[in-house]
Amino acid sequence: MSTVFLNGTYMPVEEAKISPLDRGFLFGDGIYEVIPSYFGQMVGFEGHINRMNDGLKAIGIELNWSENQWHRLCEELSNKNGAGPLGIYLHVSRGADNKRFHAFPKHIEPTVFAMAFEIPIPKQPDLATVGKGYALTSTEDLRWQRCQIKSTALLGNVLHFQQGYEAGSHEVLLYNRQHELTEASASNIFIVKDGVIATSVQDNQILPGITRRLVIDILTEHGALTVEERTITLNEVRNADEIWITSSSKEIAPVTLLDGSPVGDGKVGPVWLKAATLYSKYKFNY
After folding, report:
1. CATH code for the domain of 188
2. pTM given for the model
3. Is 134 a catalytic residue?
């Protein structure tokens, strides 16, 4: 039985109750984060909380929690759930009104919910044991135009992910109408060509991924690797030597198949090995 946090109280998950009039339930009107925590040590905590605060501000939810309050909540939730390898899920909705109405209601309290769930311990990067890599399907990005907001309204992402799942893929690579790379349904994307690493420029088409940011910073500071943030065409993606997907749960995952065709030589590449090794070494420093 896991312990969750709801509006100031820790309780068994079976006892947690939220009003059906909560706007998070009715409209997906909220912001969320998932912070990886390994035996009490969190990865990218400050970045996650800053992104949450940016999201709350962007949609007009007022919640005056300090970074220390969030840190104490995450620590307590981790301890109450065994303090092992956990994903700490934080969720803030606008709260519950007494009716369903599209406009933002006044004088209601936000709903704050948090839970922990088990995540695998990342393996030490090794070309001999990493396996075949991920398989991706590509499709046009049909989500909304404010993907920089980590909204709880994830139906667009879910539909894209399901499309890939039904095709037997692990993820879906997305591109805009100009056939320019955006991201994946639940990950950011990096490509490698001739030793140069590139990822899409940060704008409203992609989520400002915390792992994405950590990868850029770590590789630049510790790996002497060239990382470009720029517009990437779909043709460049299809001709890349390596493709990676990054997220808090996947860290840096190599992709070896795109739309059924091999990426590069079809094997996990050496630049991925260097990047994943550096990320594993320095991820707790940020």
Report:
1. 3.20.10.10
2. 0.95
3. no
